Amino acid sequence: MSEQNTAPRTASPPVVGILGAGRAGTAFARTLLAADVGVDICSTRPPKALQHHLKIYAPGAEPVAPEQIAERTRRNGPGIVILAVPQEELDEVDPAWIGESILIDATNTWTYSGEREPLPGWLEAAVTEQLPSSMAIAGHFSPARTVKALNHIAHSDLDDAAGRDLPMTQRRALAVAADDDQARGLVMGLLVRMGFDPVSLGPLAAGRVMEPDGPLFNRPLRREDLLPYAR
Asked: Comparing 53-67, 77-91, 104-118, 201-215, which segment has the lowest mean pLDDT?
């Protein structure tokens, strides 16, 4: 057998897709890339028009068409797409782009001067009934497996908060909520790789405390701060 045939193969790095190339989406991309995770990212702009933007805000991220956002992550694992599109624009996202991938819902419902931002009708109905927005998103984007995560840390904090070289006990803790145990576990593994200490709160409904009016939102937390909210 030749030396060429016996040489070990170099495994391809995992890839994650990101829907949305704004400040949040590019912040997620930078943190993933720093953790040696490949990134495919899309926006309303075609991939060629997105290239210059990414060179500035997320060097190394690959611009793709929206319908391609889940292709490489399904081939190279872990089959995760991050939703970083403003909730008012969610009707512009075709659920078929995500398919059966794991969908990290990193979105929030925002209120300005006492009035809620305009939302798609299906989401407005759920929020009016005081349901966690992720539950409506999970229904709308079925058969994707929705996991609530990465929404309660400010995108401006991500670069500095990721502690990839720190022991788990010294890392910033991030909450995770999902109804699918396997999907939750894969997202928690991704957060560890990004440099955080993930804490499962339980089912998707438990993610209510992660929203902007909840006790976990935009606070630097440790594991012991999150455990009282776990179900």
From this structure: 104-118
Q: Is residue 4 predicted with pLDDT exceeding 90?
A: no
> Residues 32-77: pLDDT tens digits?
999 999 999 999 999 999 999 999 999 999 999 999 999 999 999 8
Given this model, what pLDDT does residue 11 score?
66
Q: Is 215 within the bounds of a domain?
A: yes
- 4 belongs to a structural domain: no
First vs last Cα of the chain: how many Å apart?
56
Domain of residue 221 covers 13-229
Residue type for 31, please?
T
- pTM value is 0.93
What values do phi and psi take at 159, rounded to 5?
-60, -45
Report how many domains make up the chain. Answer: 1
CATH of the domain at 108: 3.40.50.720
Does any domain span residue 8? no
Residue 84 lies in a domain: yes
Beta-sheet strands, E only, within the chain: 15-19, 38-42, 62-63, 80-83, 102-105, 111-112, 115-116, 145-148, 173-178, 197-202
Q: Which two tokens stand for residue 104?
A: 């990290």
Cα 83 to Cα 106: distance, rounded to the nearest angstrom: 6
